[in-house]
Amino acid sequence: MRFGLVELRLARFHRSYSTLQEQRSANPQELRRDLDRLCEVLDPAAVDRAHLTRLLKQCGILQSTSEARRLHSWIAKTGLDRDPFFANNVVQMYSRCGSIDEAARVFHATPRKNARSCEIMLAAFARSGDLDSAKQMFDAMPEPGVPAWNSMIAAHFHSGDSIAALRFFQRMMAEGIRPNPRSFVAALDACSRLEEGDFIHELAIAVGLASDAIVGFSLVGFYRRCHRLDLARKVFDKVEEITAPLWTQMIAAYAKAGHLLEARALFDDLPEKDSVSWTCIVAAYAHRGRWIEAKQLFDEMPGRDVIAWNAMISANAQSGRSDQALELLLLMDLDGVHPNSVTFLSALEACTNLSDASRGSKLHTEGMLGSGIENSRKVSNALINMYGKCRELGRAKAVFDGMSDRDTVSWTTMLASFAENGDLEQASRAFDRIPERQCVAFNSMLAAYAQNGHIEEAKQLYDDAIHEPDIVAFTTLLTAFAQHGRGEQALCLLRAGDLEGLEMDLVSFVGILDACACCGALTEGRSIHQEAVLRGFQDDVTIGSALVNMYGKCGQVGPGREVFDGMPWRNSITWNAMLTAYAQNGHSAEALELFPVMILDGAEPSEVTFITLLSACAQAGLLQDGLRVFALMERDFGVARGAGNAVCLVDLLGRAGRLEAAEEMFAWVPVEERDTAWTALWGSCKIHGDGGRGVRAAESVLALDPVASTPYSLLTEALVMPHLEIY
Q1: Tens of pLDDT along 460-478?
Q2: Coil/strand/helix, residue 11
Q3: What is the mean pLDDT of the chain?
Q4: Which CATH architecture has domain 648-727?
Q5: Which pTM value belongs to this model?
Q6: Cα-flanking dihedrals φ and ψ of residue 587, to 5°?
Q7: What Cα–Cα distance (Å) separates residue 648 from each residue in 38, 258, 642, 664, 679?
Q8: Could you tell me if 153 and 187 are in contact, meaning their C-beta atoms sit under 8 angstroms apart?
Q9: Of 119, 163, 126, nearest to 141 (Cα)?
Q10: Is 586 left (phi over 0), alpha (psi -120 to 50) or beta?
Q11: How many CB atoms lie within 10 A of CB 465?
Q12: Cα dihedral: 49, 53, 55, 61 (round 10)
C-alpha cells in the first residue's frame, strides 16, 4: 500500500467536512440566545460582521425558519439588507431552510444585485427542484459563470430529469466552458448507470481533474453506488492529495458492501483520525449488526460529539433495537452532549417502532419544547408520523395545525396518519387541500387506499391521476394487489410496467419480490432475481432478504439457501426469512440447526425468530425441542411472552397431546389472538379425540366472533368427535 511509502499530504477538509463541522457547532439553544442578545443591539456597527455571517449560516444549517425570520427582521431594521453581501447571505439562509419563496422575495427586493446574487438565487431554485424558475434566472444572466452552469445541472437532476442534467453538462463542455471540480460532482450525481459515470470519469481525466480530491470523492461515491469497489479503489489510489473526506468515503464504500475487514484496515491506516472517520467506522459495524465491535470502537472514540452519538442512536433505531436507541439517548445526556434535531428524529423513529406514544410525547414536551428544535419542519413531520402510527391522531393533528411552515411532506404525513387510523374521509380531505399535488401526494393517497383495503379506488387513482409511469405508485399498487389476494392483477401490472420501461430502483425491486412471494409467482420472481444481479443489487442485504423470502414462499428452499449463503452479510431479517422458509416448507430440523449458527454470527433473535422456531417444532411434533426454544427465549435472550409465541406454544403442546397444558397457556394469550389459539386447540382436540375440550374450544371461538361461519362449522364437527364428553 502506497501510504507510508511516500510522504502523505493530508488536506484536512473540503466542502462536505466543513459542512459537518458547521453542523457540529450549530446549537439551537445557543442560536436563540445569540439572537436574543443581537436584537437588543440597535447600532449595526457594534456587531461583528463575521459573527452576523455565522448566525446566518447557523439558521440555515438548523433549518430554523422562525429564527431565520427574526434575524432577517433585525437586518432589515438596521438597513444592512441594502448591503449585497448580507442580502445574499439572507437569500442563502432561506434557501437552506427550504423557504424558497422568502428567498426569492429578498432577492427581488435587493437594490444592488451582483453576479453572486444571481448565482445564489439560481442555486436555491436548483436545490428545490424548481426547474422553470432556474431556467428563467439562467437565461437572464448575460454571461453565466461556471457556478451558474453547475446549478443548472443540479436543477435538472433535482427535478428528476437526470438525462437532461447530463445533456446540460455536455452542452457546457461544447460551448467551451471549462468545468471545475463542482461541475463533475453535479454530473456524477445525475449518473445512474455505470457507462454514464465511466464517460464522466473519462472527461475528468481529459481535463486533468480525475486526480482532484473533490472529483475523486464523487467518483468513489458513484462507483460505490454501482457496487464496483474495484473501480472505486482505483480512483482512490490515483488521487494525488488524499483528503480525510475521500479516505472516509472509501471506508464507507467497503463498509456498505459488507467488507468490514478492508474498511477497518483502511481506518487503521488513516494517519490522522478525526470524529468523522471514527463515526464512519462505528456506524459501519453498527449497521452490520456487529454491536460488540461497534460499542468497543464507540467507547474508544476520543471526544464523542453529537454526530457520533447520533450515528449510534440512528443505527440502533433503524436496526429494530429501539429500546437500546432510547437508552443511548439517556447516556448521551449523562455524557453532557446536547441533542440536536437529528438526535430527536432518530429517537422519534425508535418510539414509532415501539408504538410508544408515552415516551414519544415525553421527548416532545420535555426535550423539545422551548429549545427551538420543535420549530424544525422535519421534526414536526416526524412527530406527526410518530403520533399517527401510535394511534394518537388528535396529537398528530395538533402538531400539524401548529405548524406555520408546512411542506408537501407535512401534508402527506398527516394524510398517512389519517389512513393509518382508518379515517379515509379525512385523508381524502387532506389530499384535496395539498397546495401542490406533486407525485408524492398522489402516491400517499394511493397508499392510503391500499392500506385500508380499497383496492378498486387505488386502481382508479392510479389509472386516472398518475399519467406518467411512476415506480413508487407502481410498486404500491402491485403490493396491494398481491397482499389482497389479487395475484393475477399483480402479474398483469408487473408485465405492463415492464412494457412501459419503468426504471426500477432498489425499493421497487423489494416491493416486486414481496408481491411475487405473496402470489407465488416463481417465474416472475426468478426474472426479477436475474435483473437484480444485472443491476448489481445482489449484494444488498434488503434485496437478498426479499429473495430468500420469495423463494421460500414459492416452495423453493434450495435456491433461497443459495442466495442466503452467497450474501456478504446478513441481518436479523435475512436470518428470519431463511428460518421461515425452512419452517413453512416442512424442514423443521434444518431450521433448528440454523438457529445456533445465527447466534454465532452475532444476529439478535427477535420475537419473530422464536415464533418461527416454535411453529416449526409444532408442525414436526418436536415437543422437547420446542420447550427448549421457549425456555431459551425468555432466559437467554430476554424476549417476553407475547401473543405470537403464546399461540405457537398452545399449538405445540396441543399437537403433542398435552391438551390440558395447552389450555392453561390461554392466560398468556391476549384477547385479540384467542380465536386463533382456540382454533389451534380445536385442531389438536380433533387429532387426539378430545371431543369435550373440542366443543369448549369451538364455543369459545363462537363467543369471540358470533357472526362468522367458521365457528359453527367447528362446533358441528366437534359434536361428532370420538370420545365426546359434553361438559
Answers
A1: 888 887 667 678 888 888 8
A2: strand
A3: 84
A4: Alpha Horseshoe (1.25)
A5: 0.65
A6: -100, 65
A7: 65, 35, 10, 13, 12
A8: yes
A9: 119
A10: left
A11: 14
A12: -170
